[in-house]
Fold each of these.
Amino acid sequence: MNAIINAFNSKKKLILANEGRLLKKSFFGLIIIALAFQGGEFGEIIRNSMVDAYIQVSVFVAFTLFVFIGLDSLTKYDIKSFLSKTQKYHVPIAAFLGAIPGCGGAIIVVTQYIQGRISFGSLVAVLTATMGDAAFLILAVEPETGLLIFILGIIVGSISGIVIDLIHGTQFMQNQSQIKVEYEKIKTTFVSTFNIFWLIIFIPGFVIGILTAFQIEINAFYYTNIFILVGSIGAILSIFMWSFNPLSDFQCSTDKSRGYLSRVIDTTNFVTTWVIAGFLIFEIFIYFTSIDLKIFFDLWLPLVPLIAILFGFLPGCGPQVVVATFYLNGYIPLSAEIGNAISNDGDALFPALALAPKAAILATLYSAIPAILVAYSYFYFFE
């Protein structure tokens, strides 16, 4: 997601917009779809990867999102008011909000920092704890790992934020901006008309995913054909809907005014596209080089956590979803995923970079310290 910031005269309102977003997304998505229609062995590899990504990962991500966004939609508690009444506990609260899957909680903390209501340590805590939308992917496929990373995020984020406030003081790089964050005023989009078709594909896809996960035996012929049909349509439809959605990925998952179903579907489509991209990166690399990435990463194993941590510096959730996909497929160790989870800032980094760039960059660099310590501690003691 690329965001540009427009300040509206005296009201000083912030609008997350991007004039070139749709063009970039559609170009990226159409390239992936075009690969699926290639002939021969290469095309078959691409299609199988897309089907596996949808049936084995995306349907479970969607289910997880139905649960989390459903709970979020039912919650009417004013977090901003709560933060103003609990100043002594801003750092651990910020870490907890950051650790919550998705970027919504982290964005709230970032905007509160921008308005001078919380300390720089709280900003470090939330950016250290947040994993963005990649958390949904981990929770859907490996819930026990997702819970581990959630707990680590809170603990590491809290400790980091407290230490930073002790070193620099609570007024360090304090911002007093009165800018208000708003969304683009689009509640329905062209792709929303496909929501019903998305659900029609998701329901059998989720059933097939459950059957596959538990290795339940049914008629092989019909199962294989339905597996391929549902997986292919689901993958292509998800990529298509994401590619032609004019909204930012951040707004898709956090703007409560857009409706429960749209938030679930749009966020699932975003994660699905990047999961498929991760699958394809691996398969295309193998196809053209004949190099086994698992063996390659094993040869450079001590450096893999560091590479994953550096990858976490890339803004946005998309690249981090790719890292999570590599972990779930066994190409990189858990220590690398933990390091990436701590170092990456998700979509929360975009508004921070736009309104407080120096603080955002420094906070991101600070998050690398606990990422390295925790990742390599896990690497040396448990792997």
Amino acid sequence: MVNSEARKICFLTGTRAEYGLLSGLIKKVEKNKSSSSQLIVTGTHLSKEYGNTIDAIFKDKIKITRKIDISLINNSRLGVSKSFSLAVEKISRSLNSLNPDLLVLLGDRYETFAAAVSATILNIPIAHIHGGETTQGAFDESFRHSITKMSHFHFCTTDAYKKRIIQLGEDPKNVFCVGSLGIDNILSNKYLNTKQLEREISLPFSKKNIFITFHPVTLERDTSKQHFKNLLRSLNKIENVSLFFSKANADPGGKKINDEIERFVKKNQSKSMVRSSYGQQLYFSLLKYVDLVIGNSSSGLIEVPHFKIPTINIGDRQLGRIIGKSVINCLPTEDSIDSALEKAFSKSFLSNVKKFKNPYGEGGATEKIAKKIFSLNLDNILKKTFYDL
């Protein structure tokens, strides 16, 4: 039985990746007797096209408080704008009804931005995770910093990001550097062995094995399809390889990338496969056995380095994020991708990659955030003073 005076802590999740990061923290809050957990599920979790990833939440036996459908008619820029306006309307209604003491948000998706706008107008304090980061190729960049200004407590992954949050005028006493939640999930994951993996994915491992995640670069006009074709041409030159594709997200241009993946896999079924979502257990298990990860996802920079394998980071989507020495940056051209692949498979680079440290920490973020949100002083927190440097 939950204490009637328990602190009501509400989480919102709109994507597979975001839930993967939040899941451990949500479970910890659910088990705490001094708090009451609420969970709003929205975005691509409710989309068949993107893998019905709400099933992962059901599998974890986490109670869902509200399901909010903001289905995209299409993932054009106008379609995303319409979904955003619908999200503000529906999330506002849910938050008004649930009346949480604290809303916990992670990252920078437009669904998250919609929740922050709603909470701000409803006078609900916000705790934001993964603020202070930069991704100069995506419109998420503007959403993230805007969420920072609407938030009252900040849990960031590195000291550099902490400094940037304070630079935005946030009070240093409410900014906490905790590392990445993703590392905790890696450490607690129940890994599948190679036989279990091959049964699950129906594609045998080869001499070389590569995981690919490529998303649209939303601050560029219609470049993603051509850039992705350049990547496919480079990958097609590699012999004795198995290619594991994860579909692009629901940003404008994502469908064009996914159509290209489907065409490639159909022509190359003996060496490639695709899933809308691999799920956390399968994804991390694959990372133990693949030789490298290539694309432009944040996971390649934050989580993949923990597995001591190379990441090839293509183009500007993640430009500005802190990267470890295991990450190879390259242009979205065929020649540049070819060179990056050659470097990633070179003996000299592979011998060094085992020694590189992950700049996003060694774990413990879940416990640090949980302890803080249980004890945060929420009195008079809504009126913020701009902190001048």
Amino acid sequence: MNVNTFSKLCSVVGIVAVAFTISGCNINQTNEQSAQVMGQLSPKVQGMLHRQNTSEAIDVEFAKRFDDKMAQAKKLVTVDGDTITVKHKFGTTVMPKTHQRIVVIRMEDPILALDVPFLAGNYNPNHYLYEQLSAKDINVISVNDDSKTINYEQVQAEKPDLIIMRDSFDQNVYNALNKIAPTAAFDLRQDETSLLALSMALGIPETGELRLREYYSKAKFYRMALHEHIGDKTVALLRVLNKEIRLYPYSKNDINRFMYELLNLNPPLMVLEADFSTTNNAISLERLPDMKADYLLISSGYGPSSKQNNKIAQNRLESMKRDELWHKIPAVQQGHVEEVDTTVWNAHGILAKEQSMKSIYDAWGNKWYSGISNLLVVKHKK
């Protein structure tokens, strides 16, 4: 085990060896607490905590990840001659041979990532992709978030020959859309898999593969830059809502999982503990100083459709900043707090994740990294 690996393990699980003195080891977390948490971690998570951040190690790791995501995508999309079939939670869809008039319902992120032309989608001026969508003159399909219904008249007016939807709606919505045009649904929370599956469904698998490799190349660059500066210091994400504060876990939430899976950021012990929570990971203000985060990301509010709640959440955050408990958090004391764009961080899809990774890089890696981006190319097996 090299020094970096030992230092990282020490800061996470609090294992202190008498024979070694390693700077950066977080000895504030007791051996008893650490041993208890470590004992509950799955072998997969324990393995994740031991990963390296060299160029070669990341290439190997991401190549395996690429293969895993491809295998998952192939379970969803089958190609038999010129017949492409998509399996989803509502059933199966045989893709039309041609699709020139595509309507997209909350799958705008991967469609844009693949650079596939489409007629209409669901977005508004608060959407993180608004500028790109409006520049392409994409028509708007309205969605009522309270009733989880779609304006079917607007969909029909587009005369689509294919509808691509996120599977977060119910069966009735899918059935209604499928009566208008063949409709394929995808789980956007699995953003990498859904990107590949969508490209396969549209008959452009090579485009999906190239785009995912580009995504991993960016993740590699951001990861190496961040680790050159912050090393094994701990990083956490707090989300401030109108009635509560949430500490996001290490591997159980699809909003921030990329921080630890792709960027290999080091979690405080409390973040690892959150993996075992059966609740929504709400945390009291009184417990925040115990988090022991060296770097802290703050997301306040909800998505673009909840303006009033966003304002309440922002006011709550400003109130927190005036509390003396807030100033006991290590990250606050060190000036390592970054407020992020909630509309981006709450979104799913690789474009959203690329923006989120870049926001961390801009805050804590950009001025410090001595690497050259064009040398950081992810290698993949054929």
